[in-house]
Amino acid sequence: MTSAPMSPLALLDTDSLIGDDDRAMRDTVRKFVDDRLRPEIAAWYDEGSVPVRDLALEFGSLGLLGMHLEGYGCAGTSATAYGLACLELEAGDSGLRSIVSVQGSLAMYAIHRHGSDEQKDEWLPRMATGEAIGCFGLTEPDFGSDPGGMRARARQDPAPGGTGDWVLTGNKMWITNGSVADVAVVWARAEEGIRGFVVPTDTPGFSATEIKRKMSLRASVTAELALDEVRLPTTAMLPEARGLSGPLSCLTEARFGIIFGALGAARDCLETTIAYVREREIFGKRLAAYQLTQAKLADMSVELGKGMLLALHLGRLKDEGRLEAAAISVGKLNNTREAIAIARECRTLLGAAGITLEYPLMRHANNLESVLTYEGTAEVHQLVIGQALTGEAAFR
Ligand SMILES: Cc1cc2nc3c(=O)[nH]c(=O)nc-3n(C[C@H](O)[C@H](O)[C@H](O)COP(=O)(O)OP(=O)(O)OC[C@H]3O[C@@H](n4cnc5c(N)ncnc54)[C@H](O)[C@@H]3O)c2cc1C
Fold first, then answer.
1. Can you tell me which atom of ligand 1 is nearest the CA of 214?
2. CB atoms within 10 A of CB 395
């Protein structure tokens, strides 16, 4: 007996948990992804190049850049709406979602939360429209999971006598949009501890080199930044960020978007796979009609539905101002881990066809390797949760 198939997220009717405004925004982003991005994404991924500047303007005109921030031309949506936008973008590609995450949750958020009025006025309106692109330089070649060990240094020409200028020296690694950015938020160790700096990328001494030959996030620009005696005015420092909590507050924002985003990649894999197995005939009958296939589809849909419930719950907590860092770690750990498992399992159901760019499975699976690693690796989130559970920090 056959009946009309149901989409995996319809199983739990998670849409009924989303308000009308958020759903309308979500549908707009989904349509943009389907009409504008989906036809191009395999080629961008294949070529390892993506028109970040054009896309930033388009994302800006949709109101997606810094969309959960207030003022300065930002849309001021709910956190849940921002999460849903991330989900739809990542159903296209994790690299496309990364453009929006880095711009809104890392670079813009850093300036919005920790910046001076002058810094906000100068950068945020242009970043919201996509005219100015930002990047966020925290990771270094030798310090990823342990950013507190950073070697980048900020020293100040002492006033009186000196100019009071800041001088930055160091290297930042794996920086999304680093070589296309107009402005970099760079974290460096000053005498008083870790501080953030707003660095226009045309400042003498600043250079960025794109990292090529990636097998993951190929539709995203990743770069190494070199700061060689970059001289900045005293006003370049983010006045409100002191110590490691400054950059960590930005990572918390970006991690939240990933909790939703990873589910987009997983949903796209599952929907593609269900459509495929309903067509593909093996041993004289459709692949969808085998129990082994259905067991896989059922298990994956259960995980996708659970991940969505978790994301919506965390979104609600964030909208109420009650979301704790350990809960974000629960969401980031679970949803990235399950998404990559779903992408890989879906690939098995497409057999050889699953390894090509004709289908999105391997692309999503490879992208999710980065998503599992950046914004805190899976292991780092286990340690955050472990500390919350035991009171013991086991990071070192
Ligand atoms: C595509 C991409 C884009 C990125 N974009 C940015 C960006 O825009 N800005 C930015 O600042 N950074 C960015 N990153 C960097 C990212 O945040 C780091 O890669 C991440 O923090 C991990 O650091 P690492 O790669 O140095 O790995 P490492 O820290 O060297 O970790 C290696 C392994 O050790 C494990 N490990 C670490 N600590 C412990 C511990 N205490 N106990 C047990 N195991 C441990 C890790 O989980 C991992 O498995 C990006 C990375 C990628 C891949």
1. 1
2. 12
Pocket test of ligand 1: the residue of 103, 145, 172 to mutate, having most ligand atoms within 8 Å of its CB, is: 145
DSSP code for 353: G
Residue-wise pLDDT tens digits, 21-68: 999 999 999 999 999 999 999 999 999 999 999 999 999 999 999 999
- Split at pLDDT 50, 70, 90, the class of 160 is low
Instruction: Work out which ligand 1 atom sits closest to the CA atom of 187.
Output: 11
Mean pLDDT over 336-365 rounds to: 98
CA distance 91 to 263: 8
Asked about 281 being catalytic, the answer comes back as no
- The catalytic residue among 58, 210, 375, 379 is 375
Decide: 88 and 264 in contact? Cβ < 8 Å.
yes
* Topology (CATH level 3) of domain 246-390: Butyryl-CoA Dehydrogenase, subunit A; domain 3 (1.20.140)
Q: Which CATH architecture has domain 134-242?
A: Beta Barrel (2.40)
